[in-house]
């Protein structure tokens, strides 16, 4: 809730509390309200209301309690009774009634009572902002999109508060934060609710299974909130209320989370909500002077030495609060929530796109029904763009705040990216293994990112934004590297590749396909996009000085077989020449061409012929 609105609503309490109240329940509610224990106050006021349903003060206080908690829509009836039973209603009553109408998306009526609450225009700035929000609300709800929003269900949500959903790029895991019974430590905070804990669900057959508390070491006896997850689910950002509020980072080792360590971007101020870009080289996070106001989104980049640069504010920030940044796996679309821009009330979800020059597009409101007059926040989206999640305090949920799924209109904006996933196995044991995965831009020869498969499951998830020729190299000590090529045009849309990869140990007769060595069509001239792979091959031979290898050239069966045989031999010789020129002894190398005699795919299809046109390395 906007600080100005909160201050105004609380001032109403001071105004009405000047009247003498004899009822013990009302006094109990007043004391709890003054202490900002609104849930406790609501309970007391509702009991008092049973004795006199027409008491304008009690109805008014119940309305304010709902506006300060949830569901805010419930404030409407109570605020209406307070006005009807007061003679005359106060300006503060009109304002709270306007707020309740606003929350119920009765835009014109809300504007009317906002204006009625400020006849002397002493709160012109606040009322003007609220009127503008209602105007945007009319615009968006009159052009609502055909989007299905569904409660995530009882296996995810509880009777408490459930929020901050984050998902892995392939939607195999859902992490979220909950203030439900059974939290670690078992204690209640000053607001009467359990401390925050982190929970996790797994995707089983397309549905989330029962949420589980992830336990120690990430959950402790105090507030622990998951505020971000990497796309592969192996790096988590955790908020803890220390040093004014800080962000911590934890790594998944096998199936266990390591101890969380503070990020270097933390200050004495309030830091929360964090996310990584797909290449893990850019960090987005939120910083504020305190936990209640002036939230802005910052960005910093990972330096050559692996450290984070000095954070800078994004230009999308407004004089109002911004929160919950989420960079989509496409590497360019940033979703966030804001109380500014064209919000229709509270936080609305927006998106902005980073251009090739590094600028950001004008933030676009996701519209109705995703956004409402309440707080719509913590939006995340699957890599394929089909399913989103966010938290909302909609009426009719399981608790005070629930997690909802959103079926997005994919036809409007299909993400252009490839999602690579699978397992990495060891050929000797057949078991999953940890390996280093290096992603290279073959055109610029720049290493874009490095990842690791999970040490216990061998699983990996990598999102590759479109428009680039990628070289993928998977390495583990004592093994030959595995290479893959992924070429994505800017308009290819979404593609998903699942591939389980077996790493081959360094031994006689072991061989690998060098998928990132490219030649000019019909020639033996090596293209520049091959040099990253050739460099890696050179390093392998230098690190294993006793190896003798055969470089083999292969073709498809299109054209004259004699010419194919000659071309395969020349290509193999060209690779050997490169290796010799880069320090590998000639007596360790054999070049051999096989023409089309050893196909690995069907020559009847282009896909098969492409597999047959290859360069291999075999240990002799």
Q: What does this protein look like?
A:
The protein is of the alpha+beta class and 620 residues long. The protein folds into three domains: 3-141, Tetratricopeptide repeat domain (Serine Threonine Protein Phosphatase 5, Tetratricopeptide repeat, Alpha Horseshoe); 159-412, TolB, C-terminal domain (Neuraminidase, 6 Propeller); 417-619, 60s Ribosomal Protein L30, Chain: A (2-Layer Sandwich), CATH 3.30.1330. Helix content is 23%, strand content 30%. The protein is built from eleven helices and 34 strands. The strands form eight sheets. Strands 2, 3, 4, 5 and 6 form a five-stranded antiparallel β-sheet that branches. α2 (24-34) runs antiparallel to α3. The model is unreliable at 17-21 (pLDDT under 50).
Write the layout of secondary structure elements.
Elements: H1 3-16, H2 24-34, H3 38-49, H4 56-68, H5 75-84, H6 91-103, H7 107-116, H8 124-141, E1 148-151, E2 161-167, E3 173-179, E4 197-204, E5 207-208, E6 212-213, E7 224-229, E8 235-240, E9 246-253, E10 256-257, E11 261-262, E12 270-276, E13 282-288, E14 296-301, E15 312-313, E16 322-327, E17 333-338, E18 348-353, E19 364-365, E20 377-381, E21 387-392, E22 402-407, E23 417-426, E24 436-441, E25 446-452, E26 459-465, E27 469-475, E28 482-487, E29 494-498, E30 501-503, E31 511-513, H9 531-543, E32 549-554, H10 561-581, E33 589-593, H11 606-612, E34 614-619
Parallel strand pairs: 23-29, 23-30, 32-33
Antiparallel strand pairs: 1-22, 2-3, 3-4, 4-5, 4-6, 7-8, 8-9, 9-10, 9-11, 12-13, 13-14, 14-15, 16-17, 17-18, 18-19, 20-21, 21-22, 23-26, 24-25, 24-27, 27-28, 31-34, 32-34
Helix pairs in contact: 1-4, 1-6, 2-3, 3-4, 4-5, 4-6, 5-6, 6-7, 7-8
